[in-house]
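Final report, Chapter 2: Outcomes

The project's central promise was a pipeline that accepts a single protein chain and returns its three-dimensional structure in a standardized token representation, suitable for archiving and comparison. That pipeline is now operational. To close this chapter, we reproduce one record exactly as it appears in the project archive, with the input sequence first and the structure output second.
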Amino acid sequence: MIAVGLLAAAAKPVAKNPAVTWLIGSGLKLLLILVVAGSVHWLLVRIIKRVVRQMTLAARKERLGQVKKAARTAELAPIMMTERREQRASAVGQLLRSFVAFTVWGIALLLILSILGINVTPLLASASVVGVAFGFGAQTMVKDFLAGIFLIIEDQFGVGDVVDLGPAMGTVEEITLRITRLRDLTGIVWYVRNGEILRVANRSQGWTLAIVDIPVAYKEDLERVRDVIDRVGQEMDADPAFDDVLLGVPTYAGVESVTGDAVFVRITAKAAPTQQIPASRAIRERVKVAFDRNGIKVPVLVRTVAPGTPTLGGVNPASPTPPTPPSG
């Protein structure tokens, strides 16, 4: 009888623990989703980093080869553009990593919610309605984000560039998907929404042009003036102090304008990005010294002032008789 009772007890089904059942079923599915999502995210991020690294190394090798060939010539724009490609590859890589993380873990969250018994269909419907309402209320923000994505992908400008964005002009300090921060020449920081950027004038891509107009006396020999300016350009090109400023020889461009007192001659030179103003100042200084050394006169330009017009100190240059100082 005892043996029969034991056999009967053994034949009864063992009561299953609900926690163990959940762990064996849903728990394993959740773990599998997390492992797969983590693996996919890690793999895609690794691929993106590898591609960005290869693009950066290729750009660096290209720039080194160009430097060896070109040394210091007016055709250094491709060398600088390879640096731009490095920055662009880094920015696009960061954008792709953020997109991959959002997509992978967003899908994983939806799968986890469905396993936990939460019906995601009403949730998606509600999210779509909220998204539409939010879209109407935040059109400006969506516009800023989309514009920021295209600014980064198209590489219209980067951190450190001197740009004119319309409402503000200065050096770019930070670029986000929503705003661009730049500092102007007076030190004021501007925050410009990317959606409001309708045009971009970038002064830092490749090279800039330094333009200098200098007056000489009307009777001066222009061929002599040209020779002096050409010698100044050759001297500046050979001076190592201007290796980081000038990308070409300053040249005599010709006569820009003629007045009764002077002839304005124009000098142009390719300059490195953000070095346009220092290059112009250096050219003016060198040309002035060369003109003094060669006896080339720069006329004094006098403006005609109508009689009776008050001037500084009470003296009117157009007055026929200057005021007599008091005696004693």
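Archive annotation: The chain has a mean pLDDT of 76.
This record, like all others produced under the grant, will remain available to the consortium after the project formally closes.
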